[in-house]
């Protein structure tokens, strides 16, 4: 079995596991598509959109979708109906990531007894 076949089988076994879609997308080149065992044909971009549909809290997916767009003028419709450009997707990932880094730093500092 190839790496792609393993991810396709994983999607067949659990179609709600977003990591399988992300991993499969990472094996594809821009414009390349793959046929799932269900017969559905998906591109790299469509696989990332499916990941986002499954969990829109994963900030890295916004970046990956943004990088599938050719330029900042091109837009894409997300599963929630929102249209975004490459720049907006990259900013969304960056903004959400910044908030997560702040929370992680705050949590780390709260564990430090010398602060209290």
Tell me what you see in this structure.
The chain has one domain (3-115): Serine Threonine Protein Phosphatase 5, Tetratricopeptide repeat (Alpha Horseshoe), CATH 1.25.40. 57% of the residues lie in helices and 10% in strands. Mean pLDDT is 86; it is low at 102-116. It has a two-stranded antiparallel sheet. The protein contains 5 helices and 4 strands. Strand 1 and strand 2 (41-43) form a beta hairpin. With 116 residues, the chain is mainly alpha-helical. Pfam families: TPR_17.
CATH superfamily: Tetratricopeptide repeat domain
Overall domain count: 1
Mean pLDDT equals: 86
CATH class annotation: Mainly Alpha
Strands of the widest sheet, in order across it, are 1-2
Structural class estimated from helices and strands: mainly alpha
Pick out the low-confidence regions.
102-116
SSE sequence, one letter per element: HHEEHHEEH
Shape-level CATH architecture:
Alpha Horseshoe
In whole angstroms, how far apart are the ends?
55 Å
Rg, Cα atoms, Å:
17 Å
Extended strand count: 4
Shape: globular
Question: Strand percentage, roughly?
Answer: 5-15%
Share of helix, binned: 55-70%
Enter the CATH topology name: Serine Threonine Protein Phosphatase 5, Tetratricopeptide repeat
How many helices? The count is 5
How would you characterize the largest beta sheet? 2 strands, antiparallel
